[in-house]
Every structure is written in structure tokens, then in C-alpha cells.
Amino acid sequence: MPPQQGWQQPPPGWGPPQPPGKGKAPLIVGIIAGVVLLAVAGTFGFLHLGANADGGSPKRGGTMPGVCADVPQAALAEARTTNGNPAMSKERKVADGTQTSCAWDQTKGVDGSGLRNTDAYVVVGDAAGEYERRVSQSKQNNQGTINERPLDGLGDEATAVLVDGKSAFLQLDIIVRKGDTVVEVEYTGWDSGMFGNKRPDVAEFEAAARGVAEALLAEV
Length: 220
Known about the structure:
Shape: elongated
Protein name: DUF3558 domain-containing protein
CATH topology of the domain at 66-217: Protein Transport Mog1p, Chain A
Strand content: 25-35%
Largest sheet: 9 strands, antiparallel
Distance between the termini: 126 Å
Helix content: 25-40%
CATH class of the domain at 66-217: Alpha Beta
Transmembrane segments: 27-50
Oligomer: single chain
CATH architecture of the domain at 66-217: 3-Layer(aba) Sandwich
Region (Disordered): 1-21
Keywords: Membrane, Transmembrane, Transmembrane helix
Number of helices: 4
């Protein structure tokens, strides 16, 4: 018997079951989560790179004056300030001797991230009065808590004055009298943390400043 006309296609509801349609909600949730993760990663990456940026300057040319030129590179590298600044350094004659100022900061690509600056002063003449004046001046700093202590093994007498503020910034002044000469090293800076500045280790900070002071004392 020939097949009946009209049954070539199954009637509605007949035939193999169709797979259920996929909802778009999981896809949307996944896209949103991915965007959020990328935003968070980008923010943390930006903060990390900013905190650890190389803040140094290109290596300068020129000659440092007087005793500044004789400070060994090793002592400057320990202080992370190998970039001498002749424009901010000078030697001048005074009535009873000489006064020399020296300035160093970081060399880009050499001294790392964070911040370090070294300023030194060498004064020959009226050492007793100059020593007391510089110690007193260091203690007048109002940017943080002042901690003062004597240092052994430097010149005839030596004092360290640490300015410890609420921020990551530290300043340490080492003042030394040796005979008729006074040497002062003013060392400042902070370290880079994961996402911001952090306070340097005080013992390492002092050791770096002391190394520069010892180098200058060896030349006077």
C-alpha cells in the first residue's frame, strides 16, 4: 500500500528530542569576572612599577672639587649615590681655612630604586665651635623625632642625629671632629616597597653614611 500523503514530515512533537538551548548568563558572568581581574592586575602592576621606578639621573660629567673627588666609588656605591653633582659642590677659602661642600645622588640604571641623597661638608678651622654648631643645627630639624647618640671610632668625637618621621623618609646626619677639621655627612632617602615607599633599615642606612664619613676623614 502506498504511504499516505502528508506523513513525510513527523507531526509536531514527534522525532528525536532537541538539546536544550544554552543560556548566556554564565558567559556574561565570565566576561565580567575577566574584566575585573584585568583591572585589578593592571592597578597593582601600575602601583608596583611606580613604587619601584628608577628615580636616578643620567651620569654627569665634570670634576668634583677638593676632597669630594677623593671619596672612593665603593663608598658611594654602598650609599647608592654614585652620581656626583659638581654644580652643587664647591670649595672655598675662608679666613682660617677652607669649606668644602659635596653632593651626590643616584645614577640612573646603577643605584636602584627608592631615593638616596648624600651631602657632605668639610670645614677646616675653628673645629670645636663648628662641631657644636652643626650638632645643634641638626637637632633643630622639625620633620620628625630626633634621636642623637655618640659614635665610637670616628675622629676625636662624633655624633649621629637621626630624624625619624611618620613617613618612610629618613635623614641621618653624622658630624665628626678630627683635629682642626669637621666633617658632616647628611644622608637622606627611603626604600621602595611592593606598592609604595617603605622606611629603610636604620642600621644599613647608618653604615652607608658612616662609610662616606670615613672616606672623607681619610683625606683630611
